[in-house]
Amino acid sequence: xxxxxxxxxxxxxxxxxxxxxxxxxxxxxxxxxxxxxxxxxxxxxxxxxxxxxxxxxxxxxxxxxxxxxxxxxxxxxxxxxxxxxxxxxxxxxxxxxxxxxxxxxxxxxxxxxxxxxxxxxxxxxxxxxxxxxxxxxxxxxxxxxxxxxxxxxxxxxxxxxxxxxxxxxxxxxxxxxxxxxxxxxxxxxxxxxxxxxxxxxxxxxxxxxxxxxxxxxxxxxxxxxxxxxxxxxxxxxxxxxxxxxxxxxxxxxxxxxxx
Length: 259
Ligand SMILES: [Zn+2]
Ligand SMILES: [Zn+2]
Description:
A hairpin with a 4-residue loop joins strand 11 and strand 12. This protein is α/β, with parallel strands linked by helices. It is built from five helices and 13 strands.
């Protein structure tokens, strides 16, 4: 299975449109939380507007997708007013065939995949792939590269140790020290947050465990023009390596960007 793993779109319309345009190239899409942006939730983009727009984007996804909430996607229920979108209700309400969200566990192409709501204490057991917003604490995927502060979650780390999935696909830390780290046999991935017109993303082939991260950056070329580049980071291999990975990676590369 070929998975496209992204996270932290933060209400970026262009990135949602890119995801919609790319979707048919993958078996499964993963959006690991922070679809909305609380920082922009003032007058210009009230959360109700963001929710409406993001729900329209999600409705355009035809490829199977697993999407969890992040800290920007959840607000508390207002005790004096009905708010059906609170507590991640706006995303929960998007659940349909081939769109799995918070709390779902499903079997897909020989993998058991769990989608975990933000700040959930316990994961479902036996998942081989877990989609959760916060990375586990004490790995490089949760440490901010600028200030070296670890923004990872103790709960996620505890669940990782108890359940030992093959992959934990997360987001949240926008500029992690490393986009990939591992604990024993579990590979943890965090694509990070880029500055280009397409989101940073990770492509995972679960059979060969060939993994590519693509960084999308807009750099100032000179004072006036901006240059955009997609940089594939060297493919990494996890423990499920098999002999045919090189063929598969070539296939992935050719079919998606490198033709
Ligand atoms: Zn974020
Ligand atoms: Zn976050």
